[in-house]
Amino acid sequence: RGGLVIETIDANPKYVALTIFGRDRLTLLQGLNSNDLIIVEYSPESRNIGDRWYTDLRCISIRRTIKMNQQ
Fold first, then answer.
1. Distance separating alpha carbons of residues 18 and 66, to the nearest angstrom
2. Is 3 in contact with 22 (CB distance < 8 Å)?
3. What is the rounded average pLDDT of the residues 5-12?
4. Using an 8 Å Cβ cutoff, are 57 and 23 in contact?
5. What is the per-residue pLDDT for 49?
6. Which of 70, 61, 67, 69 is nearest to 24 (CA)?
7. pLDDT tens column, 14-69
């Protein structure tokens, strides 16, 4: 199990935390740099615990669109 935090690109950027399960999917993170522009496909999953709702965003795929230089 692993995870990553991404920043969205829009008028009001937001940080989004995603979880990744499985060795095959963890390899999706290899070779990514913090400045890379990526497209993430994810699946939202919610559950109710004690009258509160919790939502996970499970990463399905990551595709790098532009490799940026690290500074």
1. 20
2. no
3. 90
4. no
5. 95
6. 61
7. 999 998 887 777 777 787 888 888 888 999 999 999 999 999 999 888 888 866 55
59 is written with which tokens?
């990463």
CA distances from 8 to 21, 37, 50, 51, 64 (A): 22, 10, 31, 30, 14
DSSP secondary structure letters along the chain: -EEEEEE--SSS--EEEEEE-SHHHHGGGTT--TT-EEEEEEEEEEEEETTEEEEEEEEEEEEEEEPPPP-
C-alpha span between 33 and 3 (Å, rounded):
14
| Distance, CA of 5 to CA of 39 (rounded, Å) | 13
The reported pTM is: 0.70
